[in-house]
Amino acid sequence: MDIRLMDVAGLQALIDALGRRGYTVLGPTVRNGAIANAPVRAVADLPVGWGDDQDAAHYRLRRREDDAVFGFASGAQSAKPVFFPTEEVLWRGRRTPDGFDAEAADPADEGPYALLGVRSCDLHAVGIHDTVLRDRGVPDGAYVARREGAFVVAVTCGDPGGTCFCASMDTGPRPRAGHGAPFDLALTELLDDSRHHFLVEIGSDRGTEIADEIGASPAGAADIGDADRVAEQAAGRMGRTLDTAGLKELLYASADSPVWNDVAERCLACGNCTAVCPTCFCTSVDDMTDLSGDQFERTRVWDSCFNADFSHLHGGNVRESTSSRYRQWMTHKLGSWIDQFGMSGCVGCGRCVTWCPAAIDITEEVAALRQAAGGDG
């Protein structure tokens, strides 16, 4: 792999080069006390000098003692809303003197996007959505239109949070070529008392073109070694771990476990976990008309298997209890997803733990299932 080096000025040159090519650059920014994706035009728009503290039902930004640009764990948002938005118009219609005309929405008009600062866990989540929404027999046209042509700048997570467990899922903390969705460039931030640089790993011809344009210089062996240590140290500082050995079989054998009722006593069925999950993809469709009945709009919106009516069929709901809905979510995410798509549906980002108001921890619930089944906790 072609490996380069650039400084903070080079990062600004990267943003400028992407802008000149017509990309809408989206990256992490500080918004309302959290890290959220938003348009980025300058390094100053990024969370320079900001870190975060995350634990179950806890998220707070904090000021770092340095000027790290990517010195935080996973933000409140993943890349998912960029390619698979929370709400999107599928088509619009209007009554005409001769009948009815319909016009499909064109999501291709929104891009192209350049994603800056995509964590390795979220890069794997994009890869999962590529499999689920793009590469099957009937692709999701809106997703494909937004996804195709996107430029991805991934970044190594050097300071994982208290709820991170990507090392357990083999999805991070460092982006790797051939693992997860492809990246064009992958950055590892190298910051000490004497320098502030970024190791740049090039993953595509477009990435090479950009690196050449901004004058990224060849990296030395010492630089590569420093980046390796950043990733190794981050992998050793994960806030959570998840034992995945025989996990699918454990979940299938635990359909009647009392653990599900224990979780249900605490679960609010609010759907926060599915809203922040970078891989959940359930939706529903809303139809709306104006008061005259002359204008019509069909919209796709995110839905959640925690909603009571999500499994509604003729005659009633399939999963009426909170325990059955939590069991469905976790068993699909960590078990049947593997049978369905050939991979786990969890990338270890920890957002479902951080943003659960009841502090329910998926890693602890797996341990509880193991203990209830007679295995180690």
Q: Could you name the ranges where pLDDT drops below 50 across 5 or more consecutive residues?
A: none
Query: Ends: how far apart?
Result: 41 Å
DSSP summary: helix tally: 13
Instruction: Tell me the helix content.
Output: 25-40%
Q: Which structural class matches the secondary elements?
A: alpha+beta
Radius of gyration: 22 Å
Fraction in beta strands: 15-25%
Give me the count of strands. 16
Shape: globular
> How would a textbook summarize the main sheet?
8 strands, mixed
Strand order of the largest sheet: 3-2-8-9-10-11-1-12
How do the SSEs run, as a string of H and E? EHEEEEHEEEHHEHEEHEHHHHEEEEHHH
Mean pLDDT over the full residue set: 94
Concise overview:
This protein has 377 residues and is of the alpha+beta class. Helices cover 33% and strands 25% of the residues.
Please give a structural write-up.
The chain has 377 residues and is an alpha+beta fold. It has a domain at 3-86 and 105-235. The protein has helices at residues 8-20, 80-83, 120-134, 141-147, 166-169, 205-214, 221-235, 247-253, 259-266, 272-276, 322-341, 351-354, 362-372; strands spanning 3-7, 24-31, 34-39, 50-55, 58-63, 87-96, 99-104, 113-119, 151-155, 185-191, 196-202, 217-218, 283-289, 295-302, 312-313, 316-317. An eight-stranded mixed β-sheet has the order 3-2-8-9-10-11-1-12. A four-stranded antiparallel β-sheet has the order 7-6-14-13, with no helix packed on it. A two-stranded antiparallel sheet has the order 4-5. Helix 1 packs across helix 6 (205-214), helix 8 packs across helix 11 and helix 9 packs across helix 11. The longest helix has 20 residues, at 322-341. The chain is globular, with a radius of gyration of 22 Å.
